[in-house]
Amino acid sequence: MTNQTTVANFDIETLTPIFNFILKGVRHEDREEVKSEAVLRILTAIDKRQVKKDVFTFSHTVVQRAVYDYYRKNNRMITKNSTLVNYCDGADEEQGSTVDFFSYATEEVGYGLSDVKTDYLNNHSDFTPQQRKIIDFMLFTEGGIDMKPTEISNFLGLDKSHASRAMSKLKKLCQS
Description:
Strands 1-2 form a two-stranded antiparallel sheet. The chain has seven helices and two strands, in the order αααββαααα. It is mostly helical. The longest helix is centred in the middle third of the chain and has 20 residues, at 55-74.
C-alpha cells in the first residue's frame, strides 16, 4: 500500500531544493511572494488529490509555473508606469546655493491605462471586430486587465491568433 501525500503529512521543507534551484534567478524582493503562491497551489492540488504520482516532480513544475505567472502578471507594460526622483537634501556648494534641490528624475518604461484606453479609442477602427472584442474586454471589463489575451479569446470563443494580433497592434499603437 502506497503512502499518499496529504496536506496534513506534507513537509514544506521538501520544497527547499526546488526553491533554491528555481528561485535563484528571481529578484530577491519577489521570492517570498512567488514561494507563497507556489506553496498555496501545491497544497490546493494535494487537497484536491490532483497529484497523481511523484509530489516532488509535480512541485517542481508548479514552482516554475508560479515564477512565470508572477512575472507575466506583474510586468505587463500596461500596468507599469512610474517616475523615480532622486532627491538631494544638501546644498550645492559649487553653485553657491543653500537651497535643497532635486538631482534628477527618470521615467520607467510603461503605459498608463488611461493613455492606452485613449489611444485605442482614437484608433478603434484600425482593429478587426474580433480584435476589438478582445481589447474591449481587456480594457473595459472588471478583471479583464489581469487576464492573459489568450484567456480572453478563449472566454469569448475566439481564436487565440486574434488575441496575439490585437496585442501586437495595440503595442505598436502605444509606442507611436
